[in-house]
Sequence to fold (298 residues):
Amino acid sequence: MTAQIIDGKQVAADMRAELKEEVAKLKEQGIVPGLGVILVGEDPASKSYVTAKERTCEDIGIYSDDNRLPEDATQEELMAVVERMNKDPKINGILVQLPLPKHLNEAEVLLAIDPDKDVDGFHPMNVGKMMVGEKAFLPCTPHGVIQLLIRSGVNIEGANVAIVGRSNIVGKPLANMLIQKSKTGNATVTVCHTRTKDLADQTMQADIVIAAAGRPNMVTADMVKEGVVVIDVGVNRVEDATKKSGYRLVGDVDFEAVKEKASLITPVPGGVGPMTITMLMYNTVESAKRAAGLETTN
Ligand code: GUN
Fold:
């Protein structure tokens, strides 16, 4: 079997078009969703993510408040920006780009964000609400993965899902969302990690494999069953002398070999990546609606 490629760029473009329309309607009622973005330091990957987020805001019609702090910014300086944004009624969502430089206390910053503006869904209040199945901002990458599955017609209910990776940003929340008693849940989930005894043994049982380990070629063709659905969340830079930049992006999956066995597969780039930013925009629009007392979805 040769897999059909899940075109994340197209799915994201469709969702962004829906959001753009919704934002235009909100503007007629005097509501302009706003996103506050905070980037500390010069990490090239973080800088490019943040720039992409700001460009997408502009495209959809979301106001963005761009704050870049130097690498040596203090905890107090960072907390002061968060506090200012918490109070600013023009801002419905606050995004602190992670990872932060080592000298800063990430947990303290995430806890300081007003949970009603926590569009990343990283505040323990939102994590807890998600866990018990209450309305909450859902973290963008896992939410994007679920949207990709649904919009590609994949049946999640009753599926055996193997997630490779247990990060707070992807693996843990995704496992939680997929086991919820809901239309987008009801899966049987196995979370694999560096101490899993036999990874292939677990992935081989799965109808859906989600790779989020941050290691190139972690999932190979001999580890998946025929007809599997594969979602690759990995974004790894590998050296490539033929590229002007000197590197190219690859996922965690051996794409060329696995696509010959899978029924559906996401590429890297152009799979999950565009969905993450889209779900951030979605959460920001939801937050603006909630602040204005309008009906929201989650
Ligand atoms: N770094 C990597 N992924 C993310 C994300 O989804 N949100 C934030 N704030 N930082 C990240």
Notes: The pocket of guanine is lined by residues 95-98, 120, 140-141, 169, 276 (CB under 6 Å). The chain has a mean pLDDT of 97. The first helix runs from residue 8 to 28. The chain has two domains: 32-116, 140-275.
